[in-house]
Amino acid sequence: MKPRVPCGVGMGTRSLVLLGSGWHPPLFREECKALLGPIETLHPRLTFVTQLDSILDRISGASLVDEVLHSTSRLWVYEREVSSEDIANYVDEWAESFLPIGSFAVRARKLGKGVCDLSRRDLESKIGAKISSDQRPVDLEDPDSEIVVILAGPGDSSEHWDDVQQNPLILWGVRDTSFSGTYTGTSPTERPFFKPITLDPRLARLMVSLSFSRGPPSAVVDPFCGTGGIAIEASILGLETLASDLDSRMVEGTISNLDWAKGTGSYRVERCSADGIHEVWGSHKGCSFVFDPPYGRNAWSSEDGLEVFLGALSSARKMSPDGTICTMLPSNPDALDGPVSDQLQVMGMDWVDLRHRIMESGWNVRSSIPVRVHKSLSRLVVLCHPSD
Questions:
Q1: pLDDT at 72 over 70
Q2: Cα–Cα distance between 47 and 33 in angstroms, integer?
Q3: Are 387 and 360 in contact (CB under 8 A)?
Q4: Collapsing DSSP states into helix, strand and coil, what is residue 94?
Q5: Which pLDDT value is given to residue 223?
Q6: Identical topology for domains 13-175 and 188-386
Q7: Which three-class secondary structure state does DSSP give residue 360?
């Protein structure tokens, strides 16, 4: 049983391991794919990627990435027992080649039940003692480098269904200090314009990330901007933002919130109906349409509500035929119990029928992942590409 060590990569290319939020592992992996392209899934919450530095820089804007490691090595643990001393020896051997000269600390963390009943504290102590030298002293307060050891075992619980296997894995690497850590955003209640319906900043940021699935968008368009949650996240990321709403109070409030957020991306906000955005904004190549349409109890109780949504899709296709759609749709909470079925109720109709209506509007559903809102309601995060 030997650990797998990092492979050599070319100039301007790096290999990283991303540790995802435990809140929603499937959406974490979907975000990784949208931002970075092909990934290797090591565990529901661990992905491995090799990419150009210019693309890896997108991780800084991710919503569901908790930690980033470089120079990693991994050890799959199946039926054989492994001890803290074994791991300390492996990490010591790895450190000779990959741990920079200077002070260091060891941080261990468990995912799920961990691996082989290994103690995090015992592992930290033994690895630190094994590596420590005059050139690489231990410094728990302000180390030059941090070795992160992840004990990824089964039983990593989430309230969202996941079909990825959780094979026992021990992984270690150097924490990438260029990544600032878990994204939380600022509380919507701190904004000058606030309504209880305001979208969680983490979800708003996630939806913008998912819209990178065909490459960085030329602009982010939100035809149901509400209080401006999605527009704020897009502008903070430096993206041009085009927001609109039929309610003039929301338009004024979104402008106030965008001015307050001081994002680096330019923005414009106009009052218009969702099916008229192509007339207001004109033709734009490579846009992402990112929106959270109204989803209250009465929002989709009539054919009118569905037509508003489909009208927005049709207008988006006219505005940017090569664009991307990322939206969230109200669905039955049964979606949280397993794979999304054709019979799932989404916006009051079978998902298979709604997908057909979306196709008729010029878009093809590429992924659909449910998110819990509360006990009686979930939302389906839907990503669409052009249908031709």
A1: yes
A2: 10
A3: no
A4: helix
A5: 98
A6: no
A7: helix
Among 220, 241, 221, 228, which Cα is nearest to 193's? 228
Nearest-angstrom CA–CA distance, 182 and 164: 22
Q: How far is CA 110 from the centre of its chain?
A: 21
Burial class (CB in 10 A: 0-12, 13-18, 19+), 366: middle
354 CB contacts (<8 Å, ≥6 apart)?
329, 346, 347
Instruction: Judge if pTM exceeds 0.85.
Output: yes
Q: Which uninterrupted H or E stretch holds 90?
A: helix 84-98
Mean of pLDDT values over 41-62: 95
* Sign, CA torsion 83/88/89/90: positive
What percentage of the chain carries pLDDT values higher than 70?
Answer: 94
Burial of 47-77, coded b for 16+ CB within 10 Å and e otherwise, reads bbbbbeeebbebbebbbbbbbbbbbbbbbeb
With respect to CATH, is domain 13-175 assigned 3.10.560.10?
Answer: no
Question: Predicted confidence band at 10 (pLDDT cuts at 50, 70, 90)?
Answer: low
Return d(Cα 73, Cα 201) in angstroms, integer: 34
Map out the domains of the chain as residue ranges: 13-175, 188-386
- pLDDT, position 154: 87
> How far is Cα 118 from Cα 83, in angstroms, rounded to an integer?
7
Check if the beta carbon of residue 272 is closer than 8 Å to that of residue 251.
Answer: no
Structure token pair of residue 318: 């006219």
Total residues belonging to the chain: 388
Give residue for tokens 């995912």. 111
Is the distance from CB of 265 to CB of 222 less than 8 angstroms? no
d(CA 120, CA 140): 15
CATH fold of the domain at 188-386: Rossmann fold (3.40.50)
In three-state secondary structure terms, 357 is: helix
Residue 269 exposed, middle or buried by CB count within 10 Å (0-12, 13-18, 19+) = buried
SS3 content of the chain, % helix, strand, coil (to 5): 30, 30, 40
* Residue with tokens 């027992």, as numbered in its chain: 81
Q: Residue 325 forms beta bridges with which residues? A: 289, 384
pLDDT of res. 235: 98
The count of other CB atoms within 10 Å of the CB of residue 237 is: 20
User: What was the pLDDT predicted at 300?
Assistant: 46
Q: Terminal CA-to-CA distance of the chain, rounded, Å? A: 49
Is residue 89 helix, strand or coil?
A: helix
pLDDT at 181: 84
